[in-house]
Specification:
By secondary structure, the protein is α+β, with helices and mostly antiparallel strands. 27% of the residues lie in helices and 29% in strands. The structure holds tryptophan (TRP) and zinc ion (ZN).
Length: 469
C-alpha cells in the first residue's frame, strides 16, 4: 500500500543518514540533523493521513471558485512549527495541480506521491522552527467516494458546491496536515461570481463586491480540525440573530429547502442555550447553520461553528450537529479510532434533548436500543464502539448507538449530578484540544471516585452484548 511504500522510502533515507553519521564516529543521529520525518500522523485506521513532524498553527486559504466550470484556484499559506529537524515534509493533497511552493519565501522542490505533496525546502528546518509554506494550486477538485460508499471532498450541488471533510475530504480542496490531531486557526477568503454566496466557518470578517465578483473572508479564531473546515457555495437566504447570551448566529438556507425547514433562526439559538446549560459554555465565537440542497449525500456534518445540512433537517438532527460543537469540534479525538467520543456523545445529546422536552426519557430510548425495537438500533452490536475494526466502519451504528448507551450506563452508575459534572469537565478540560478514550475514563473515575473499569470494558471494549443490569 501507499503508506508502506512511503515509509520504506523514508526508512531507506534514514539508513543512509545514519550510515553517514556513523562514519564520523557518532552513534545514531546527531542532534539537529535534519531527516525527512515521517509522512504520516500514525493513525491506526487511516495510516496515510497527516504528518507528525510539524504542527500547523494557521491556514490562510485564498480561493477563487467558478461554479459553472467547477474550477478552483487556491493559495494556501500555512504557518507551522517543526516538531523535529526536517529536511523535507509532506502535506496531504488529492488531485489539483500545484503551480509552485515556497518555504519561508524560497522556492521548495515539489514531488507528488499519491495524495502526498512532498516539499523539500531550500534549507532544512531545525526542530522548533516556525516556518511558512505557500502553495499555489488550481484545478477541478475531486469528490471522494469512501469505502463505505459515502461521498465527501468537493461535491458539486445544483447551484454551487460543498466542501465536506470527514474523515479525509479536506485534502480535495487545500493542502494541509489532514489529521484531527493537528488543529489550527483559519482565515478562508473565497471569491465567487456575484450572484453566489460563499459561506465558511467562523465569522464573516469582510465582504467585498468588485465588478462581477464577490469576495468573502471568514475567520476562525479557535482551533479547528481540518475535517471540520468547509466552504459552501450556492444561492442562500441569509438571516442573522443572536442567542440570549449575545452569541452571533448566522443561518444560510437554500431557497429550495426553506419550506421544509424548521425556523432555524429560532431553533439554533434555542438549542445552543439548552446545550450550554447541559454541556458548559458554547466554545466558539459564533454559531449558525447551513441548509443546502444536496439530498443524495444523506448525511449532515458538524462543520465548525455552522453545521452543514444537506436538506431541511428535523429538530433532532440539529441538536446532534450542534452538540458536536462541544463534542468533536472543541474536544476532538486524538485519533479516528475514538470516533465514539464524537458520535456517541452527539447521539446521547439527542436523547437528553428529547428527555428535557418531555417527549420520552433517555431510559426509554436506551431500552428500545437494547431490545432492538428502536429503528436506529440495527447493527449496534456489530463491534465494540471504542474499537471500530476498519476505516470504513468508523461511522457505523455501534459508534453512535452503543456509544450513546455507554454514556447512559455511566449516568445510571454515577448519578445525574456527577454525570453532568463529567460532561462539563470533559468539554472544559480539553476545550480546543484533543483527547482519547483513556482520558475520558480517567476523568469519570476521578469525578465519581468509583472504579469504572468493568463498566467501560463491557460497553466500550467487549465484543459481547453487555448485560443490561
Ligand atoms: N459526523 C456526521 C454526523 O454528524 C456523520 C458523518 C459524515 C461521518 N461523514 C462521516 C461520520 C464520515 C464518520 C465518517 O453524524
Ligand atoms: Zn454526528
Amino acid at each position: 500500500m501507499h503508506s508502506a511504500r512511503l515509509s520504506r522510502a523514508a526508512l531507506f533515507t534514514v539508513l543512509l543518514l545514519t550510515t553517514g553519521t556513523a562514519c564520523t564516529g557518532s552513534v545514531g543521529r546527531t542532534a539537529g540533523a535534519a531527516g525527512p520525518g515521517a509522512s504520516s500522523a500514525g493513525d491506526a485506521l487511516f495510516p496515510t493521513l497527516g504528518n507528525r513532524g510539524y504542527d500547523v498553527a494557521h491556514y490562510a486559504l485564498t480561493l477563487d471558485y467558478v461554479p459553472e466550470t467547477n474550477a478552483l484556484v487556491g493559495t494556501a499559506v500555512i504557518t507551522a512549527r517543526a516538531k523535529q529537524a526536517l529536511s523535507r515534509f509532506s502535506l496531504d493533497l488529492m488531485g489539483l495541480e500545484v503551480r509552485d511552493a515556497r518555504v519561508d519565501g524560497s522556492e521548495a522542490e515539489v514531488r507528488r506521491v499519491r495524495n502526498k505533496l512532498i516539499l523539500t525546502p531550500a534549507d532544512p528546518l531545525r526542530s522548533g522552527k516556525v516556518f511558512t509554506t505557500t502553495v499555489r494550486y488550481s484545478g477541478i477538485p475531486k469528490m471522494i467516494t469512501d469505502a463505505d460508499g459515502g461521498v465527501e471532498g468537493w461535491i458539486e450541488t445544483d447551484d454551487g458546491a460543498a466542501a465536506l471533510g470527514e474523515p479525509t475530504g479536506s485534502m480535495a480542496w487545500f493542502p494541509g496536515n489532514h489529521h484531527p490531531s493537528d488543529k489550527a486557526l483559519y482565515d478562508i477568503t473565497i471569491t465567487v461570481p456575484k450572484d453566489y454566496t460563499a459561506v465558511s466557518n467562523g465569522e464573516l470578517a469582510g465582504l467585498q463586491h468588485k465588478g462581477r465578483r464577490t469576495t468573502s473572508h471568514w475567520h476562525t479564531g479557535e482551533p479547528m480540525a481540518s475535517y471540520l473546515a468547509s466552504v459552501v457555495v450556492g444561492s442562500f437566504d441569509i438571516s442573522t440573530t443572536t442567542t440570549t447570551h449575545g452569541l452571533p448566529v448566522y443561518i444560510a438556507i437554500d431557497p429550495d429547502e426553506v419550506e421544509g425547514s424548521p425556523d432555524m433562526a429560532e431553533l439554533v439559538p434555542k438549542i445552543i442555550d439548552w446545550a450550554s446549560g447541559r454541556f458548559g459554555r458554547y466554545p466558539f465565537s459564533g454559531t449558525g447553520a447551513i441548509v443546502d440542497h444536496l439530498p443524495d449525500i444523506e448525511y449532515a456534518l458538524e462543520t465548525q461553528s455552522k453545521p452543514y445540512f444537506e436538506e431541511a433537517p428535523d429538530e433532532t438532527l440539529v441538536v446532534h450537529e450542534l452538540a458536536h460543537q462541544w463534542f468533536g469540534n472543541s474536544v476532538t479525538p486524538t485519533s479516528w479510532r475514538d470516533m465514539w467520543l464524537n458520535e456517541g456523545f452527539a447521539t446521547y445529546a439527542e436523547w437528553l434533548w428529547k428527555e428535557d422536552q418531555g417527549a420520552t426519557t433517555a431510559d426509554e430510548i436506551f431500552d428500545a436500543f437494547y431490545h432492538g425495537t428502536h429503528p436506529e438500533s440495527k447493527g449496534i452490536w456489530d463491534f465494540p464502539p471504542a474499537q471500530p475494526p476498519s476505516a470504513d466502519r468508523v461511522s457505523d451504528p455501534p459508534v453512535y448507538g452503543r456509544g450513546a448507551m455507554t454514556l447512559h450506563r455511566l449516568r445510571l452508575t454515577v448519578g445525574d449530578k456527577c454525570f453532568f459534572t463529567i460532561l462539563r469537565a470533559w468539554s472544559t478540560r480539553h476545550q480546543y484540544g484533543n483527547a482519547n478514550t483513556r482520558q475520558f475514563i480517567e476523568l469519570c473515575e476521578k469525578e465519581s471516585g468509583m472504579d469504572l473499569a468493568e463498566l467501560f470494558e463491557a460497553w466500550l471494549y467487549s465484543r459481547n452484548k453487555p448485560t443490561a443490569a
